[in-house]
Amino acid sequence: MKIMLTLQFFFVFITSVFLITYIAPVCSQSKCLEDQKILLLNLKVEFIFDPLASRKLVMWKENEDCCSWEGVGCDDAGHVISLELDNESIFAGLENSTSLFSLHYLEKLNLAFNCFNNIQIPRSLSNLKKLTHPNLSQACFAGQVPVELSTMKSITN
Question: 32-156 has which fold?
Answer without folding.
Answer: 3.80.10
